[in-house]
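Schema walk-through. Below, the input block comes first and the output block second. Nothing else is stored per chain. Lengths vary across the set, and this one has 207 residues.
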Amino acid sequence: MNATTEQRLLHGPMGLIEVLLDKPPHTHKGFAFIAHPHPLFGGTMENKVVQTLARAFVQSGWGAVRFNFRGVGQSDGVHDNGVGEVEDMLRLIEQLSPEGPIAIAGFSFGAFVASQVHKHLESTERIQRTVLVGVATSRFDVANIATHLHVNTLVIHGEEDDTVPLSSVLDWARPQSLPVLVFPGCGHFFHGQLPLLKSRVVQHLTT
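--- output ---
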């Protein structure tokens, strides 16, 4: 991301996990853990939406933790359809932020994984912010967000997403009365809309 990005190899359930860590220059509110899109379709921690989320968190005073799921890049293991990926993310949280405030974020498949991690940790009172972008509700069993955490949760989706239909996300959000911010005319990868995406995430993180 920048000259100060720190690369690490941390221990995960299946071996090493490749991590990129960016810290804010001044205020440090805690660590934000950001999950990337589906690895079998080219998803990595270098994905542009994931990078945009990381920049938004750093600008807002959070340390941004991007990482490659098992079987991606230098991370050991093989793809596990979300089950092992949830374990990967939880293990990183245990190592990098065993206590104190955290934020959870993800894009597409990563948003599904993030939702499951969120479910595991929702009773700890540690989750300060949640950002889910292009949530893969039509493809995976995305967990509901606990009602008391709705106020700190931002869900963003493109109106013309042809990978995950907007209607699917609304069907997931509606029973929860969870708001969804829709980008009109926008597709799954937010082409041409990344600056606006970053702006809306920063706004969420700083209000």
